[in-house]
Write a structure and sequence with these properties.
BD-FAE-like_dom; AB_hydrolase_fold; Rossmann fold; BD-FAE-like domain-containing protein; 3-stranded parallel β-sheet; about 40% helix
């Protein structure tokens, strides 16, 4: 059985973020399981997957929320989902160059993604890392569930350097 879960996309009229979207996914999973049960399917394990932002959300659910889920997550897979948010990895967006302009750009991008106000000063002193931790693959441990991912060395959305952090983790 497969199920797709929609989440609120950020627009000019709302402030949806990867963090708020991850909580929508977490809230929706029990409903998916319940609807499957009503349709005669007993879900006793699951894989979570996605592409791009959906891949990020799948990883967040698998690594952050899956261990506490009623239905165990046994693997995650996807492609192109941002996995880590270290400014030095995001140079394709002009971030991480240690200039006022790049710190402003990093603060703006990571504010939108994290749903928390991040200032250029926090970029400079690296305290922003605590704020983006909730949307990063920081939970990957030696005993984490299996993960299959695909990233491109020349990807213009997910910086390849950030995917190397996921590989290392």
């Amino acid at each position: 059985m497969a199920a797709g879960i929609n989440y609120t996309l950020r627009t000019e009229t709302n402030d949806a973020s990867v963090l708020s979207q991850s909580y929508e996914i977490k809230k929706a999973i029990p409903e998916v399981v319940e609807q499957a049960k009503k349709a005669g399917y007993n879900i006793n394990k699951m894989a979570v997957a996605g592409g791009s932002a959906g891949h990020t959300l799948a990883m967040i659910y698998a690594y952050r929320d899956g261990k506490d889920a009623d239905v165990p997550v046994i693997m995650t897979y996807g492609d192109g989902g941002p996995s880590f948010f270290h400014v030095e990895d995001w140079s394709i967006f002009g971030i991480g160059r240690n200039t006022d302009e790049s710190r402003k750009a990093g603060a703006a991008l990571f504010t939108v993604m994290s749903g928390q106000m991040i200032t250029p000063e926090e970029i400079q002193n690296q305290s922003y890392l605590q704020k983006v931790k909730a949307i990063a693959a920081e939970w990957v441990k030696n005993n984490s569930i299996p993960t299959v991912v695909a990233y491109g060395a020349h990807d213009r959305i997910q910086p390849f350097a950030a995917s190397k952090r996921l590989e290392k983790a």
